[in-house]
Design goal:
Elements: E1 2-11, H1 17-28, E2 33-46, E3 49-61, H2 70-83, E4 89-97
Antiparallel strand pairs: 1-3, 1-4, 2-3
């Protein structure tokens, strides 16, 4: 089984996504694997405001006896959200065991 984390975020300014990604790997552990990355790019225009989208998909193999509770998944989601600047729009952030 794997722990899968998938997120898409929108910001008005370009963010330091590389450092945020390093912190996310720090939360999940060095054995996590990058499945896909989307570095900041203009992706949405609303009125006179541009939004830059970033995204990622990471997974981590779980050991035979390793379990992740709903509470643990919620904690991971909260920690990841807190890595992004204030005002970030969290379009989607999933953390699930697959």
């Amino acid at each position: 089984m794997k722990l899968m984390i998938d997120g898409v975020f929108y910001n008005k300014e370009i963010i330091d996504f590389e450092n945020i990604l390093k912190d996310i790997v720090g939360i999940l552990g060095e054995e996590s694997r990058v499945v896909s990355l989307e570095f900041p790019e203009v992706a949405m225009i609303m009125e006179n405001t541009y939004y830059h989208r970033t995204g990622f998909s990471l997974d981590k193999e779980l050991g035979d006896n390793e379990t992740i509770s709903d509470e643990n998944r919620d904690e991971i989601v909260d920690k990841i959200k807190n890595l992004f600047p204030e005002g970030t729009i969290v379009y989607g952030l999933k953390c699930e065991v697959i």
